[in-house]
Structures are given as structure tokens and as C-alpha cells.
């Protein structure tokens, strides 16, 4: 999802606050921004940002609630609750008095309101080239928090994992990525929020040309049967957000799906959905997804 704010606004929001002796210039979703380095009290309202900041060991003072991701429980435990991913709590943020607010994704429409409280950056990760965007965010956080060596090490580790996954999927057929939401199903192509799995891994699309819709292209069981993918990669939105909805396994328990090459060969891969759906572009999220794909495809080595 792309931020709706232009680069001049990003700079204006940051420069509206008093200058500091040590400032750095980093890339954000709305363009380059110059802000005070090493902010001490940081509130984060984007899970991909929180994921990567945690991987870099950056202390965080404010987080959204719920945060959905058990692997970030320790980070969240010591932080104030400052609203939800969609609705920041402006009073809680004002009480916290952050030196910096990191917004993005679901919270990006509130950047202007947040910037009236403290310097705010929009670190939304765009869907088109998620891998490159994720690497750019790692580098930006490394510069901002004087952790460039750690950022470089994370980038190297991510690139190595990508290469391992690319080798694991090579020559093993095409894939269709679907998201279930209760009884509804959507498909995602190479230009979508999950499309980096196709693009970065050179994993062929079972149905090229799917529209790059944020919520995917609505499909039916008949569509899955007609496409007849070699692999079916499944994301369960209900599981990701903790909703009491029909699970993906139940939704896809259908004779048309069962007759596909993917089902017949045991090649339906149910990914851990919360990291991918909630924190897409976070470095820990990406590594976990890659590990699951490596394991799934490696299990079908000849």
C-alpha cells in the first residue's frame, strides 16, 4: 500500500520541529527526510517497522495494541500502548512525549495528525517491489539509530535466505498464492502485496496477469480448478488477525481443490499468516516466510 502523502509534506513535518545538532537524512515512503539522529523515545505504529527495529535491537517506547505477533511480545511488554494500527491514541502519544513517531501502512493516513505531536516519518512499504523497499527500510533505520553494521548484517542474511529459497523452488513448477477470509478466497499475483514471493524467488505464476489489488482478486473454487496450480500457497487472514472465522483448511476442503495437481501431490502450503499479513516487509517476517517455503519445497526434492 502506498502512502498518499507527498515528499514535501514529509520534510515539512520533520522540519517543523526545532533543529538538533546531529541530523541524518534517510529515505522514507514519501521521499528523503532530514531528522534528528538517535531518537530516544520512539513510538511505532506499523508492524513491519516494529519487526525490523526489534531485529536491529532498537528500544521502542510505544506500540499499537493488539500487535498480533507473538515473536514481538517481549518488545511490546515494556512499551506503552498508543492506539491501534488504524487509530493512534493521540492522548496516549502526547503523554508518552516521543522524540519520533514511526507510522506506515495502516496508520499512514494519520501522519499529518501525528506530526502535530512529534516528528513523524511514514515508513510504508510499497507492494510493487517489497524486497527492495524492505531493504531500504533496514538501511534507513541503521542510519537513523547508528546501527549501520547491524543493518548490513541483516540485509546480507536476508539476501542469503532469498538465494536459498530461490534454489529450493527452482524447477518445481508454478504456484498460485491465495488468501482466505472465512469462506471467501482471493488470489494474488506478482505485483501484489505477496507478489515478492514470485518476483524475488523466480517462482512462476500459475495464472499470470492477476490485477495488483490490495485485497486480491476474488476467485472461486472453479477458478482454482481451472488454473490447476502445481503449488497452492495459502494465507489465512482470519488466523492472522485472531478472528473467529472459518479456517483456511476448512475453506479449501473442496472437491475441486482436491483434484488439483497441488492437492494431489501434497503441495498445498499453509504459511504462518500473521507475520506475512500483518508485518509484510519486516525482516523477521520475511525470514520466517522464506524458511517455511524452503522447508515445504525441499520436502519435494527428487
TrEMBL record:
* Keyword vocabulary terms for this entry: Ion transport, Iron, Iron transport, Signal, Transport
Location of this chain's protein in the cell: Cell envelope
The signal sequence is 1-21
Entry keyword annotation includes Translocase: no
The chain positions of domain Fe/B12 periplasmic-binding read 41-301
Q: Name one GO biological process term.
A: iron coordination entity transport
- Keyword Magnesium: yes or no? no
Give the CC-aspect GO terms.
outer membrane-bounded periplasmic space
Record InterPro entries: ABC_transptr_periplasmic_BD (IPR002491), Bact_iron-sidero_bind (IPR051313), FatB (IPR033870)
**Broad class of the protein's primary localization:** other
Q: Which PANTHER family match?
A: IRON III DICITRATE-BINDING PERIPLASMIC PROTEIN, PETROBACTIN-BINDING PROTEIN YCLQ
Question: Family assignment?
Answer: Belongs to the bacterial solute-binding protein 8 family.
Q: What is this protein called?
A: ABC transporter substrate-binding protein
Specify the species: Rhodovulum strictum
Amino acid at each position: 500500500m502506498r502512502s498518499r502523502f507527498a515528499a514535501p509534506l514529509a520534510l515539512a513535518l520533520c522540519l517543523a520541529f526545532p533543529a538538533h545538532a546531529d541530523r541524518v537524512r534517510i529515505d522514507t515512503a514519501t521521499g528523503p527526510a532530514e531528522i534528528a539522529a538517535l531518537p530516544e523515545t520512539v513510538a511505532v505504529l506499523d508492524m513491519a517497522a516494529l519487526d525490523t527495529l526489534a531485529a536491529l535491537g532498537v528500544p521502542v517506547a510505544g506500540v499499537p495494541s493488539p500487535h498480533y505477533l507473538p515473536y514481538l511480545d517481549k518488545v511490546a511488554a515494556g512499551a506503552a500502548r498508543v492506539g491501534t494500527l488504524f487509530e493512534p491514541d493521540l492522548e496516549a502519544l502526547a503523554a508518552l512525549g516521543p522524540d519520533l513517531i514511526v507510522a506506515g501502512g495502516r496508520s499512514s493516513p494519520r501522519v499529518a495528525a501525528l506530526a502535530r505531536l512529534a516528528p513523524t516519518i511514514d515508513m510504508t512499504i510499497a507492494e510493487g517491489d517489497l524486497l527492495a523497499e524492505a531493504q531500504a527500510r533496514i538501511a534507513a533505520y541503521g542510519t537513523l539509530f547508528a546501527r549501520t553494521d547491524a543493518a548490513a548484517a541483516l540485509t546480507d542474511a536476508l539476501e542469503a535466505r532469498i538465494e536459498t529459497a530461490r534454489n529450493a523452488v527452482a524447477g518445481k513448477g508454478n504456484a498460485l498464492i491465495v488468501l482466505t477470509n472465512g469462506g471467501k478466497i482471493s488470489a494474488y499475483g506478482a505485483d501484489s502485496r505477496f507478489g515478492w514471493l514470485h518476483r524475488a524467488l523466480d517462482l512462476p505464476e500459475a495464472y499470470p496477469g492477476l490485477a495488483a489489488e490490495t485485497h486480491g482478486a476474488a476467485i472461486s473454487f472453479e477458478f482454482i480448478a481451472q488454473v490447476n496450480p502445481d503449488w497452492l500457497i495459502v494465507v489465512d487472514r482470519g488466523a492472522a488477525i485472531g478472528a473467529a472465522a472459518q479456517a483456511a483448511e476448512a475453506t479449501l476442503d473442496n472437491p475441486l481443490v482436491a483434484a488439483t495437481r497441488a492437492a494431489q501431490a501434497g503441495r498445498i502450503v499453509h504459511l504462518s499468516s500473521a507475520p506475512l499479513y500483518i508485518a509484510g516487509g519486516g525482516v523477521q517476517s520475511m525470514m520466517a516466510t522464506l524458511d517455511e517455503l524452503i522447508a515445504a519445497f525441499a520436502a519435494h526434492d527428487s
